[in-house]
Amino acid sequence: MLSPWRLLPEQAPYVLPGMVSGSTGSLTCSDFKEELVARKKKTSPAEDFLTLIAMLPWWVGVALAIALYFGLHAFATSPLETASRPDQMGGVLLKSIARQFAQFGQFLIPFLCLVGAAASAWRRHQRKKLAANVSASGAADVNELATDRAIGQFMGRGQMALT
């Protein structure tokens, strides 16, 4: 059978799986292709930051939280500058806006780092528990993803090496 998006547009409409046959809505080939092609879920910058921190060891996330708090706090509480000439107004205004973001970010960004560190610690705990279960049970009833995680944990401990 040909893929639906290789057919000519005049050969449409199609009924998607899950649609009731004979429904009033008809879809073209491009609609069908868009429905079938998996799309990456759009995430916010905060979610991306959490994902990045969760990939790191938990202690790196905690260290980043402490360093970012003190760095942003120092910037947020620094003395205000004044412009002595009109051409310096842009720089003073930009620093003032950055200082406002730092005042808010000095609490939010370290909090996100701590949440990411907690996620990292939880994942590590899960991997250790899985590795213990796999080594105890002989891996007879473990799925492929769990096996991959267990192998990664054993390789990280130096108990297993690729040959």
How would you describe this protein?
This protein is mainly alpha-helical and 163 residues long. Helices cover 62% and strands 0% of the residues. The chain has helices spanning 29-36, 45-55, 58-76, 89-137, 144-157. The radius of gyration is 27 Å and the shape is elongated.
Quick synopsis:
The protein has 163 residues and is an all-alpha fold. It has helices spanning 29-36, 45-55, 58-76, 89-137, 144-157.
Broad structural category: mainly alpha
Shape category: elongated
Q: DSSP helix count?
A: 5
Uncertain segments: 1-24
Report the span from N to C terminus.
43 Å
The helix/strand order is HHHHH
Residues in β-strands, percent: under 5%
Mean pLDDT: 75
Q: From the alpha carbons, calculate the radius of gyration and give it in angstroms.
A: 27 Å
Secondary structure: number of strands: 0
Helix content: 55-70%
Quaternary: single chain
Furnish the topology, listing elements before pairings.
Elements: H1 29-36, H2 45-55, H3 58-76, H4 89-137, H5 144-157
Attribute tags:
elongated; mainly alpha; disordered N terminus; single chain; 163 residues
